[in-house]
Protein: NAD-dependent epimerase/dehydratase domain-containing protein
Amino acid sequence: MWEVNLLVTPTEHTLLAEDTPLSISLSVSAEDSILSSHRPSSLFSRFKKVVNQCSTPIPASFNMGISFSPFKKLSLQRKRSSQSQCVVRASAVSMSQEAKTQNDSGSQQTTDGASTRKKVMVIGGDGYCGWATALHLSKKGYEVAIVDNLIRRLFDDQLGLESLTPISSIHNRIRRWKSLTGKDIQLFVGDICEFDFLAEAFKSFEPDAVVHFGEQRSAPYSMIDRSRAVFTQHNNVIGTLNVLFAIKEFREECHLVKLGTMGEYGTPNIDIEEGYITITHNGRTDTLPYPKQASSFYHLSKVHDSHNIAFTCKAWGIRATDLNQGVVYGVRTDETAMHEELVNRLDYDGVFGTALNRFCVQAAVGHPLTVYGKGGQTRGYLDIRDTVQCVEIAIANPAQPGEFRVFNQFTEQFSVNELAALVTKAGGKLGLEVKTTLVPNPRVEAEEHYYNAKHTKLYELGLQPHLLSDSLLDSLLNFSVQFKDRVDTKQIMPSVSWKKIGAKPKTVAA
Structure:
């Protein structure tokens, strides 16, 4: 069961006193929520029942600003007087707005010289990169709010998957962070594809920067079937467009830090520059966006995002940084290691698991490392500790109004074969017998190719990387061994084929 805590926040023309918020709790199971997104009437009736039992006067009409579905907005109207209105907002922690003076990286100077905390909204803050980033920024002194519809947890339920690590609910995570650090993280539960919800979150929190992780981030997931391909593009492109419009309408000075992907570039037979390339053609020279060669419906959604952001920077003067991130590995950051309820998720399956994480889990349970095709596929990689560091650097050094910056966010390049060799060597030191098996490549990609991507801009701004070392591999392997009893070996082999994607929805057999 999920417990949804709702806070009725009065606006003007309300029957509630401004200092008397109304708290409502409603227990909702996964089946009641997104799994029943096409049958929301049961949720409405249950919510009405709870509202009708409240002793506190309810405004004449209100909108339920929490969405459990990526496709439908859950709204509820209660007619009593056309002059009364308030918004229902999901709340998990104290919504205190007390001003605090801190001498840390999260502070900024106001016009009168006072020091205030910089507000950062982390969209997708319940996910793998988002959760680690939210905690890191909070510890650094930023005032943080998480916006998330919690759909990543639903994907596991849909596909029969589970994180290697047991992960607490977002509400328990935030409560634990508060108890350990005394720092509040605000929570807005809803779908950014619903602009009314996003607008209310923006107006309530008033972010100085938005870190946008709130996208379906798996290439294999986007290639399962037509419905998931459509969902990926709709969720990612429309969600990002809504964020851009929210910045334009409500926080025009807000800096957008958007997580892109190195996969936008593909594997060209020339060096990959950071976002732009200078070309001389027929005697004329210009600097143009680097050509895109996306390799899945997911990567294509990221390309569309980049084009939309670049256009709005030019047309509306939005300031934006596009972080074209490589493949992330690892699970621990200083913050997530503070308590078991703060532990991050670690995916090892063939849909959401990234290469190095998957290999370490496979080695821990004695499964041969699954190298796709010839194994010459080369990509940029980085430690999750560097993900949060890069985001912090981008926030602390914002783009100028109208500027669309592109940073290639990775620290090292490896081929799949090189990763397999590193894991085999590290596993041997721990007494693990690690073998490798070549698996038919489910993807459509070059398996042997030139790859040299530039990545200097974040270093110039102060990035201190955590390079892949024997000690880090030992740590990740030991972590995998610790939780190996949670591994479902049926989820290890790839099950999604780029060529066999079909129009009919695929389900998981019981």
Remarks:
- Confidence is low (pLDDT under 50) at residues 1-103.
